[in-house]
UniProtKB/TrEMBL annotation:
UniProt similarity note: Belongs to the cycloisomerase 2 family.
UniProt cross-references to Gene3D superfamilies, sorted A to Z: YVTN repeat-like/Quinoprotein amine dehydrogenase
InterPro entries assigned to the protein according to its UniProt record, in alphabetical order: Cycloisomerase_2, Lactonase_7-beta_prop, N2O_reductase_N, WD40/YVTN_repeat-like_dom_sf
A GO cellular-component term linked to this record: cytosol
UniProt-recorded name of the protein: 6-phosphogluconolactonase
One Gene Ontology term of the molecular function aspect: 6-phosphogluconolactonase activity
Pfam short name (any one): Lactonase
Amino acid sequence: MASTFVYIACAGGGAVDTLSLDAVSGRLELVSRAEGLPKVTALTLDPAGTLYAGVNGEPRRTVALALDPASGAASPAGVREVPATTCFLSLRPDREVLFSASYHEGLMAAYAVPGPDGSAGPVTEYRSGPNTHSAVPSPDGRFVYAASLGADRISWFPIDSGTAGGGVVRPAGHVDAAPGSGPRFLRHSADGRRVYVSHERTGTVDVYARDAGTGALELMQRTSAVEGLDLEPGPIRSPRTPDPGPGVVWCADLRLTPDERFVYVTERSTSTIAAFSVAHDGRLSFLRRTETEAQPRGIGIDPSGSWLLACGERSGHVTSYAIGQDGRLDPVGRAETAAGPLWIECWRPARAD
């Protein structure tokens, strides 16, 4: 039996697909599909066995999916309506509160995880900036960071875990990204000392040092995931420009391997993945670029750090890659998904000894 399951949010198909990932070969196989989730666009995982899905069909809602450790199947276990569309979901480290980002409404929201009884509770909202694209708590649970693509700004908010609705009230500070860069997704190192940010419009990747006490970010490095691709800076995407075209930068996801040796960034216009090595101080060095599924909005890395998964919004498939000791990606498996796959999470169930 597979030791790892892969969950893919498929917005076009209104479903979350479950695939098995063979721990030895990297082979993928579709095992089940949770349907009735129109315009599902974001996932976040509680390793204890719950997957949360942001669903943008009416009514807008967050759905809790219970995961079966034997089959990997995801089944509804709770739901709550939310005030805005969801493009990013994350879980507070205590696993009691969700943070969501809303691109079109330009806000961040915090609210208790949905329970089986359908209880809602309060929602805390903050206007975190136009085109807010991610909201990510620090590993220590003291701050949550919101990236505003439209304002070229990253803000941080203290979290009061004793406050209803997530405890987010007002920002403690912010840092400006390069004008016109469009900060999109950010990820923390496991120790919380470094923050990595992908920029949708210019393809830059910023590395920040983080002060654990104040939450403040200080730029350490600015590098590029698109150098040599001959692309122009992209526009701010809107309903009028859903696809900016093949000649402009359109970066998306950023992921670190569990051992934090490598960082990978997707670029949708060229359907490629850029690989970087990570130095001891957190700085990045570009390694190589790999062609992948058409329009790769989402990637995921399994908990062992052996496999990277990339899905293509336009291909309707997901490919698994073996991650080499030098960061090289070698394709080893491929599977069909429901339409419009765009977000990937990986789960390795805890095994009883």
